[in-house]
Amino acid sequence: MKSKMSIYRNAVWFMKGLQEYTKGGYEAAAKHFVAADLEVNLSGRDFMITGANSGIGKATAFEIAKRGGTVHLVCRNKDRAEAAKGKSWSRAKMRLCLLLICPQNVHVHLLDMSSPRQVWEFAQRFQENHSLHVLINNAGCMVNQREVTEDGLEKNFATNTLGTFILTTALIPVLKKSQDPRVITVSSGGMLVQKLNVDDLQFEKGPFDGTMAYAQNKRQQVILTERWAGQHKEIHFSSMHPGWADTPAVRSAMPDFHQKMKNRLRTEAQGADTALWLAVAASAVKNPSGLFYQDRKAVSTHLPLAATRSTPAEEERLQSALEQLAQRFKP
């Protein structure tokens, strides 16, 4: 049975979402965007985007490729990955004369982010052959029934938290070699209803709720972003909420929500806008590292009176637990 605090958090969050996270919320915020922020030439800059075969990841990849950036699409499904590459190139090709894009600037890498060994091995191979300026942690998983991977890890946690942690940690050395390095993590406003629970990272206690597990993972990502910002001053870290967007992931994982809200959901491009802005705009890195963004503005990571703040000791325990798990699977 939900506690009164949980009911309060969810009610406040949903009302906030209706006003801010919908297509209308984006359109209202976009009136204040600076168009010139995205008028950039990204030639010579290398971007990695996880979960780039669909939804927000694919929309972000297209916009970066359109501006001349070299894009590394990290995807789990080979067919969808190649389709994403083809779509990015076929649309970008129409602007070839202006943007000097060539298909060699879009690369596909296959990786299951729920497999920590694969993530380590991929990151190590990548650094041997490529440079990297910007990492966009976009891959996400929302499994509604508790599922355990072959490594014995709860799948949402393995993908959203541990996979993101290992990939980012492993790529920090190559990022530090680049000019203006950035890490953007696509989190979710759903994390606002969750307080960090470091005592049950893999949801082994009590009934399993996939939506709340996902929200807990997204809270973890925001906390990690804040900690990385303090530990690696050479890199600009940020996390962001894309709003409620009409993506394949939302349609498959939250069909009831999608059916009720489909006419008010953002497009994939609208959902991707802030991730793109954080990745390419010069103005984005004028703000302090470690902040959480919504529609190109840094916003609070907590709802009013929601009692979701964690202690420094709890956040240290989270990072320590992830470091220990990560080392267990390191080749």
UniProtKB/TrEMBL annotation:
Top-rank taxon, per record: Eukaryota
One protein family per Pfam: adh_short
TM helices/strands, residue ranges: none
InterPro entries linked to this entry: NAD(P)-bd_dom_sf (IPR036291), SDR_fam (IPR002347), SDR_member_12 (IPR052992)
Gene3D superfamilies the record matches: NAD(P)-binding Rossmann-like Domain (3.40.50.720)
Protein name per the record: Dehydrogenase/reductase (SDR family) member 12
Organism: Albula goreensis
Organism classification: Eukaryota, Metazoa, Chordata, Craniata, Vertebrata
